[in-house]
Write a structure and sequence with these properties.
The protein is α+β, with helices and mostly antiparallel strands. The protein is built from ten helices and 26 strands. Among the domains are: about 1-40, no CATH class; about 45-200, Cysteine proteinases (Cathepsin B, Chain A, Alpha-Beta Complex); about 240-335, Phosphatidylinositol 3-kinase Catalytic Subunit, Chain A, domain 1 (Ubiquitin-like (UB roll), Roll), CATH 3.10.20.90. Strands 7, 17, 21, 22, 23, 24, 25 and 26 form an eight-stranded mixed β-sheet that branches. Strands 6-5-16-13 form a four-stranded antiparallel β-sheet, with no helix packed on it. A hairpin with a 2-residue loop joins strand 24 (about 450-455) and strand 25 (about 460). The longest helix has 19 residues, at about 175-190. It is elongated, with a radius of gyration of 29 Å.
């Protein structure tokens, strides 16, 4: 907060009498009023981390109404710029860094203006400097400049750490973000005498448990590993289903079908009758699970079936809804919920697994399941659009519908802990692998509706909320709510 001294040619305004009007000090209309800053009182903010109850105090105040700055493209560095813009808008992380800067930069000009994070390490210092130059206010006018910044130091520093980032070739935004966070974590850890937790682990890291179950003896082997980014495949795994068909004439048929779990009940039903070249029966059925009292909607994702068995009952009436699946055997969209459910669902291992139990001691068939043990304050999700097939990379253009506000991850993974997230950043990849471009969408406050589009140095407001959910989304950055609020879906 800035404190001003105001005066005119004839009098000085006493700030000990704030209720008085200008006329009470003898200042008349048309008079010239002069102003100067006497001193600055920093505004304090406190960030409390759920895991450690450690409090971080920041003296930096964000101007949520100011237009943010862009980052210049230094030669195919859009991957870096988009990832950085997403991280800059993670308020708990940014406030952690700004705390130290404002302690040395918000007083008089005689204070040493050095970067307090240079002593931590090259990468931490470069990132801290970038934050300060992006977010610092102009001290003379207390207005925020509207210009772009050249992230030269960040580019050189990350290039020295990893040679591929020193080139002018296009790189992967997720790989850059992971390297940046991991390196900052390691540098802070070394600076603080190898403490176990740093601001990076406390904000970004979760614990994922992997359980492998031996099919013959049911022995379970578990391991737990930390994760800073949740990488979700868009090619959902295939699953084998048994389809039973009961006809009106009392006869029954069955078949075994293998299909991607990204498909829906209607796709499975259509595939069953297509094998039999029976287009008439296709439109006269009702689908059921193993529960005879529950019918299945044809839009139900296959991933939601607890048992891989679907029963079809022939009906006398025509079912027009099934016709929509006749010419649409592959879904054009996925939901983020479906991808997460698939990620944490059991899967059979393709390769034999060696069971160390005394009664086994051999390679056996086994299944694997992942479980999210802890929820990070900042959840980063990678939609794995890039894959390798026959030695060549290709991009998946699958549209994934994701939440903007009220993403209930706790309910989705069947946890007793409440974990509701709001979207604060999206890193987009537009175009092909060989000719692609990265942009970002971000907002400074999860309670704000003010989103911005970051295209390197160009920054523009996003006026329509449906533009935030994009077919080009590659990385999603969510911030966990501290208190329960109303949930909504984009």
């Amino acid at each position: 907060m800035a404190h001003f001294l105001l005066w005119s040619d004839s009098s000085t305004i006493d700030d000990n009498e704030p209720d008085k009007r200008l006329a009470d000090f003898g200042i008349q209309p048309g008079s010239t009023i002069y102003a100067s800053i006497t001193h600055i009182t920093p505004i304090n903010y406190s960030i409390k981390n759920n895991k450690t109850d450690k409090t971080y105090t920041s003296t930096y105040s964000f101007n949520l109404d100011a237009k943010p700055k862009g980052l210049d493209n230094l030669g195919n560095t859009c991957f870096m710029n988009s990832a950085l813009q997403c991280l800059v808008h993670v308020l708990p992380l940014t406030e952690f860094f700004m705390k130290s800067f404002t302690q040395t930069h918000s007083t008089d000009d005689s204070v040493n203006k050095s970067n307090p994070f240079d002593t931590y390490g090259e990468v931490t210092g470069a990132y801290a400097e970038l934050l300060w130059n992006l977010l610092k206010p102009d001290r003379s006018s207390f207005l925020y400049y509207d210009y772009s910044l050249r992230p030269s130091r960040m580019k050189k520093t990350i290039g020295r750490l990893e040679s591929r980032f020193a080139t002018s070739d296009q790189q992967d935004a997720q790989e850059f973000m992971t390297l940046l966070l991991d390196t900052i974590h390691q540098e802070i850890k070394q600076k603080q005498n190898h403490v176990r937790n740093t601001i990076i682990t406390e904000l970004f890291f979760s614990q994922i448990q992997s359980s492998i179950t031996c099919s013959p003896c049911q022995h379970v082997s578990t391991t737990v590993h930390p994760s800073s980014i949740l990488s979700l495949p868009l090619n959902l795994q295939e699953r084998t289903f048994q389809v039973n068909f009961f006809k009106l004439n009392g006869r029954d048929e069955y078949d075994i079908l293998t299909m991607s779990t990204s498909n829906r009940i209607g796709h499975l039903v259509y595939a069953f009758f297509e094998r039999r070249h029976d287009s008439i029966s296709f439109s006269y059925v009702t689908a059921m699970t193993t529960n005879p009292e529950a019918t299945l909607d044809f839009d139900t994702p296959l991933i939601k079936l607890s048992e891989p068995v679907v029963t079809l009952i022939e009906q006398k009436s025509y079912n027009s809804r099934l016709e929509t699946f006749r010419y649409n055997n592959k879904p054009t969209t996925l939901k983020l919920d479906e991808c997460i459910q698939e990620f944490f669902s059991p899967e059979s291992l393709d390769e034999p697994w060696f069971c160390e139990q005394e009664k086994c001691k051999q390679n056996t068939k086994a299944s694997k399941q992942l479980q999210l043990l802890t929820f990070p304050r900042v959840l980063i999700i990678q939609l794995k659009r890039f894959s390798h097939e026959n030695g060549r990379r290709r991009k998946l253009d699958t549209f994934v519908k994701y939440h903007i506000d009220g993403f209930d991850l706790g309910k989705l993974v069947k946890s007793s802990e409440e974990a509701i997230y709001d979207l604060i950043g999206v890193c987009n990849h537009i175009g092909s692998i060989s000719n692609g471009h990265y942009t970002a969408h971000a907002r400074k406050d999860p309670k704000s509706e003010k989103w911005y589009r970051f295209n390197d140095s160009y920054v523009s407001p996003i006026y329509y909320k449906d533009e935030i959910v994009s077919r080009d989304a590659y990385l999603l950055v969510y911030l966990k709510r501290q208190k329960e609020t109303k949930s909504s879906m984009a």
